[in-house]
Amino acid sequence: MSWEIIFETEQLLAFWHGLLTTLSLLLSSLGIGAVLAVACALALTNGPWVLQKLVGSFTYFVRGTPLLIQVYLIYYGLAQLDWIQERWDAVWPWTHFKEPFFCALLAFALNTGGYTAEMLAGAIRETDPGEVEAARAMGMGRWQIMARIVLPSAIRRTLPPYSNEVVMMLHSTSLASTVPALTDITAVASQIYSDYYLPFEAYLAAAVLYLCVTFALIGFFRLLEKRYLAYLAPRSN
Asked: Among 207, 190, 209, which residue's Cα sits nearest to residue 199?
């Protein structure tokens, strides 16, 4: 083994920049996906029939196709259309499609948004009817009940499955390495493998970085669950 190459300053800096790219992709896609998920969940549970079908088709497509295919469809499909390329130097938002980071971010945000929307919609449907009746008795309107009672409760109860989605999204960011000129953790490992033929050392170093971030995310969500889901824990006599 040649671990001294992995620990050279050049390689460590490359992994550091790869880590920053991975975290940027993860946090940005989660932020955009969360906004999309709330909107889609509300459409699935309270929207008109046509909107429910449209959003349901979107989430079905996202959950029914591999994320890698979705990345390819955006970067090698949409971004390569002549109609978009004719406009990506001057017309917003097509100007962003020439950026590899944006194409990967769009694919990841749509993917996590679709999955999270279905989780949140399920939690909304499972809200205790007693909470809704109590809110109506206090004179709240439909959207007041949704904003102040149903949605906050659903978000709290979605935390455990959402933590799994976040971890899966972290691992899925490794697919960004398939997009040219986008250097995440996996892309750095692949470059070291290509330059020095050190597959075991390079990919093991990448695995350690993913593992460290995963443990940090799990710990963070455990703290959130302990704080916001304490009322669901069984009480000792």
From this structure: 190
Q: Are 21 and 182 in contact (CB under 8 A)?
A: yes
Asked if 43 contacts 55 with a C-beta cutoff of 8 angstroms, the reply is yes
Distance, CA of 144 to CA of 174 (rounded, Å)? 41
CB atoms within 10 A of CB 182: 19
Question: Residue 152 pLDDT more than 80?
Answer: yes
Confidence of residue 77 (pLDDT cuts 50, 70, 90): confident
- Output the pTM of the full model: 0.90
**Res. 232 pLDDT band, cuts 50 70 90:** low
Asked whether the beta carbons of 71 and 174 are under 8 A apart, the reply is no
How many Å apart are CA 31 and CA 144, to the nearest integer? 24
Band of the pLDDT at 20, cuts 50, 70, 90? very high
Question: What is the number of other CB atoms lying within 10 angstroms of the CB of residue 92?
Answer: 8
Q: What is the mean pLDDT of residues 135-161?
A: 89
Q: Note every long-range contact of 197-204, with CB atoms under 8 Å and residues 24 or more positions apart, other chains counting.
A: 198/1, 198/2, 198/5, 198/6, 200/1, 201/1, 201/2, 201/3, 201/5, 201/6, 202/6
Q: Which of 83-92, 117-126, 146-155, 188-197 has the lowest mean pLDDT?
A: 83-92
How crowded is the C-beta side of 77, counted as CA atoms within 13 Å? 10
Q: How far apart are CA 202 and CA 11, in angstroms?
A: 10
What span, in angstroms and rounded, lies between the C-alpha atoms of 225 and 162?
A: 11
